[in-house]
Amino acid sequence: MDDSEKDTLLMFLEAQRAGVLAIIEGLDDEALTTPLLPSKWTPLGLVEHLGYAERHWFQEIATGSAEPLPWPDGDVPLTTPRPPSEVFAFYRDQCERSDAVLASMPLSTPPRGRHPAPLGDEITDLRRIVLHMIEETARHAGHLDIVRELIDGKTGLGPR
């Protein structure tokens, strides 16, 4: 049961990840780094945020530790000074690490790290970490959908 459920959860997570990347595919550096909404986040900053989320949930929370980040903390939330190639490489690397954690542990494994309440109280096992990342990634894919429409009018991008 665990392997079948894992496969299903991973399929949905991978679809959301692919959607994020498909939505912003073809945007130039200016479009990726220009804020369009009053909150001032950028599409590239949101991708970097998703990389941080993958790292946080699968490494810091599921396993209890994570390798140091490749750059110092302190950036403005949901923006980034890093170039697209570096951010996309970071995001893909964090997704691969997440997949390795998922492959190595049963879904019933309790987290070794702790996320603050109230969300932390809901995270009782690896299964809920995966479900949270599906939710988080889908939510931000929706944000990117809207911004992409504002940039060039394109809609319905991505595998779903």
Task: Spell out the blueprint of helices and strands.
Blueprint: H1 2-24, H2 29-33, H3 43-63, H4 84-104, H5 119-122, H6 126-152
- Bin the strand percentage: under 5%
Note the overall shape. globular
Largest sheet: none
The average pLDDT value, as a whole number, equals: 94
Structural class: mainly alpha
The sequence of SSEs as H and E is HHHHHH
Percentage of residues in helical conformation: 55-70%
Radius of gyration: 16 Å
Question: What is the count of β-strands?
Answer: 0
Helical stretch count?
Answer: 6
Which parts are unreliable, with pLDDT below 50 for 5 consecutive residues or more?
none
Care to describe what's here?
Helix 1 (2-24) runs parallel beside helix 6, helix 3 (43-63) packs parallel to helix 4 and helix 3 (43-63) packs antiparallel against helix 6. This protein is 63% helix and 0% strand. The mean pLDDT is 94. It has helices at residues 2-24, 29-33, 43-63, 84-104, 119-122, 126-152. The two termini are 26 Å apart. The chain has 6 helices and no strands. The protein has 160 residues and is mainly α. It is globular, with a radius of gyration of 16 Å.
